[in-house]
Write a structure and sequence with these properties.
Length: 183
């Protein structure tokens, strides 16, 4: 049976056009770039390692600029699983920043091994870098640690840390960015 090329083109061309338009091309994820001991996140206009201006953005605005896993921890107070985060067992010298806004949070000299499965620090960088609020979720009484610039959930504060403060800032690795001193 002989078919007409015109009929085939007329029938199949719309099918290929619709199929091609329906394809979802995933854009490459923008990576953070470290230069001159500063992190640059091109897809996040609110990120700065030097600006200390308080940010007051809606969760919808944060959802546009944060990767989904970071958004869930920092804006919805989820917690990464213990012993899975990239910083829980590191001892490299450097500075830790808020993964959402770039606020300076900790120096590695305040990090200690608490064996709890999350990175732990005994002291924050300065009195304004982290703020606290009572957290009664999951029928527990805890103190939530929030970024002092953007209000993002970082983790919790406990009173079982080492001297000189006796504090344990138990942080989610995903809520932190790190710049090594040798960078």
């Amino acid at each position: 049976m002989k078919t007409n090329i015109f009929i085939n083109t007329f029938f199949f061309l719309p099918f290929f056009i619709v199929t091609a338009c329906g394809q979802n091309k995933k854009l490459p994820e923008e990576k953070a770039v470290i230069t001159n001991k500063q992190i640059n996140k091109p897809g996040n206009p609110y990120y700065s390692n030097s600006d200390t201006t308080k940010l007051n953005l809606t969760d919808a605005e944060w959802k546009k600029v944060l990767p989904e896993d970071v958004y869930l921890v920092m804006r919805e107070a989820e917690t990464e699983r213990a012993f899975t985060g990239k910083y829980w067992n590191t001892d490299e010298k450097g500075t830790y920043y808020c993964a959402a806004c770039g606020n300076k949070l900790f120096r590695s000299t305040a990090k200690f091994s608490s064996s709890c499965g999350w990175p732990s620090f005994f002291e924050q960088e300065n009195k304004k870098s982290i703020v606290f609020k009572n957290d009664f979720s999951y029928n527990m009484e805890r103190i939530e640690a929030l970024c002092g610039r953007c209000g993002g959930h970082l983790g919790h504060l406990f009173d079982d840390g080492p001297p000189p403060t006796g504090k344990r800032y138990c942080m989610n690795s995903i809520a932190l960015d790190f710049v090594p001193d040798n960078q």
